[in-house]
Write a structure and sequence with these properties.
mainly beta, five-stranded mixed beta sheet, five-stranded antiparallel beta sheet, globular, Sushi_SCR_CCP_dom, disulfide bond, CUB_dom, CUB and Sushi multiple domains 2
Length: 198
């Protein structure tokens, strides 16, 4: 549904008509607001970034499906509630290659979906969930792989490896940065090439 104000803690956002092709000249806006934007911290040494007396929830956006006309149709993702404010833009997404996760830095996130008048593709499906400040969110585990580490706070490190018949493509180790983004995308496990002896 276009032009929607959503409240956490989680949900799904899709392009119009998804999983059928989106319309030409689409202009859709979504603003997501944390269900409980301020949480009082009673801990003396809190792992969250404290702002006065309170800590703020923020959002994690995970891609499920993404297929837009490269360079012409875009999904812009920003921080806060001011849709279109260029100072708050986190990503301008187009084509099929997008980050696994996008994490906001405050209790609101906005999305702006714009298409041209020529081609239209399948569009996108993304899930969002409310997470605590100071977290990067769970990047997941690669198919045919395993992960060492189960916490996702600033400074935490995750290590990945693949099952025996697969090899790792990407970074073996990723770290949760203070920007609430992982240092690299989650790696993937691909089948090793089998060479035949002639």
């Amino acid at each position: 549904m276009c032009d929607t104000y959503l409240r956490g803690p989680s949900g799904v956002i899709t392009s119009p008509n998804y999983p059928v092709q989106y319309d030409n000249n689409a202009y859709c806006v979504w603003v997501i607001t944390a269900l409980n934007p301020a949480k009082v911290s009673l801990q003396e040494l809190s792992p969250w970034k404290e702002l006065g007396c309170c800590m703020f929830s923020m959002f994690l956006l995970k891609k499920q499906q993404f297929d837009l006309e490269r360079g012409y149709d875009t999904l812009t993702v920003g921080d806060g509630g001011q849709v279109g404010d260029q100072k708050t833009v986190l990503y301008v997404l187009t084509g099929t290659t997008v980050p696994d996760l996008i994490v906001s830095t405050n209790h609101q996130m906005w999305l702006l979906f714009q298409t041209d008048s020529v081609s239209n593709l399948l569009g996108f499906k993304a899930t969002y969930e409310e997470i605590d400040q100071g977290s990067c969110g769970d990047p997941g585990i690669p198919a045919y792989g395993k992960r060492e580490g189960s916490t996702f706070r600033h400074g935490d490190t995750l290590k990945f490896e693949c099952q025996p018949a697969f090899e790792l493509k990407g970074q073996k180790t990723i770290t949760c940065q203070k920007s609430s983004q992982w240092s690299a995308q989650k790696p993937v496990c691909v089948c090793k090439s089998v060479r035949r002896l002639l």
